[in-house]
Amino acid sequence: MSRFANLADKPVVRAPDQQRPAEPADRVAADLPPSRVGRKVISGYFSPQMSLALHLCARRAGVSLQALMAEAFNDVLRKYGESPVGE
């Protein structure tokens, strides 16, 4: 048993003038660099061979892996009749 297990059972006592803690979304947005604000993560698990091939392709093209993936996602959207949305 953890030595902190009983802390969850104790009520939180705050002074009347204390503000409630920020919502998790507010804390996360404050910690993000400006380039990630308003963006969502898309990720997947691939074989080491696929990872290496994508990294090499991005390197040869002189673009980031994210830019290469955005290009691929836009190609998939076009293939299925959706409008590409950019990066």
Description of the structure:
The protein is an all-alpha fold. It has a domain at 45-86. Helices cover 43% and strands 0% of the residues. The protein has three helices and no strands. It has helices spanning 24-31, 48-61, 65-79. The N and C termini lie far apart (48 Å).
The helix content is: 40-55%
| Total strands | 0
Q: Low-confidence spans: pLDDT under 50, at least 5 residues?
A: none
Mean pLDDT comes to 83
Work out the helix count: 3
End-to-end separation in angstroms reads 48 Å
> Rg from C-alpha positions?
22 Å
Strand content: under 5%
Organism: Novosphingobium nitrogenifigens DSM 19370
Protein name: Antitoxin-like ribbon-helix-helix domain-containing protein
Region (Disordered): 1-28
Domain Antitoxin-like ribbon-helix-helix: 36-85
Draw up the topology in text:
Layout: H1 24-31, H2 48-61, H3 65-79
Organism: Novosphingobium nitrogenifigens DSM 19370
Region (Disordered): 1-28
Domain Antitoxin-like ribbon-helix-helix: 36-85
